[in-house]
Structure formats: C-alpha cells, structure tokens
Design goal:
With 118 residues, this protein is mainly alpha-helical. It has a single domain (9-117), classed as DNA Binding (I), subunit A, CATH 1.10.30.50. The chain contains 5 helices and 2 strands, in the order αααββαα. The chain has helices spanning 9-27, 31-45, 48-54, 95-103, 106-117; strands spanning 71-75, 90-94. Strands 1-2 form a two-stranded antiparallel ribbon. The longest helix is centred in the first third of the chain and has 19 residues, at 9-27. The chain is flat, with a radius of gyration of 20 Å. The protein binds zinc ion. Zinc ion (ZN) is lined by residues 59, 61-62, 64, 93-94, 96-97.
Length: 118
Amino acid sequence: MSFVSPGIYPQYIWGYKFLTEAINFFCTLSEEEISLERSKARKLRKTRWWRRKCASGKCHYCGRTVGAGNLTMDHMVPLARGGRSTRSNLVPACKECNSSKQAKLAFEWEDYLSRNSS
Ligand SMILES: [Zn+2]
C-alpha cells in the first residue's frame, strides 16, 4: 500500500470533487431535468410568443425564409450541454439547419454557421 501525504492529497480530492460537481451542476442536466425541459419546450411551442417568433418563417441560423410550417424549435444550447427551455435559448430553425446541427459537434457547427453567413 502506498502512503500519500495526508496534508495535500485529501485537499486535492476535495478540490477535484468540487470542480466536477460544479461542472455537472452548470453543464449537464439529469434525465429527469431533460424530460422536464422537453415538456417545457412543448408547452412553449403552443404559445403566442412562439407563433410570433415563427411568423416571419425565417430560420434563425441560415436566415432563409422557409415558411412557418417548415420551422422547428431548436435549443441554441442543446439540453445535452446544459441548455434550458427558456425563451432566450429557443429559436426557430429550418429542418436542414436543425438536422445538420444535431449531427455536428459545437465547433463544427460554428464553422458551418460562419461559412453560411459569409
Ligand atoms: Zn436554416
């Protein structure tokens, strides 16, 4: 059995544990939280606020006008990355953007956006 100096080691563990917990707290949601956020998004989809947001028929990401019926609700910060179903995090996206966003990692998506806007 190896002996680790008790003066430093427990502190390190505590710091590490604290850090992981803090990251988990801010960056990830539990499964219950994710399903709660999903149901919140479903409810928001029925609101006048959302209909107004889609009224222009414009995709938030590529800026194309695809018509309100072709817009889907997208979480700018995905739930899997700790995003919430808040009005500021929900944007209308065309199906093309939505599916390509889902298939991409965040940095690839940013690259995709910058290519599209230029
Ligand atoms: Zn789009």
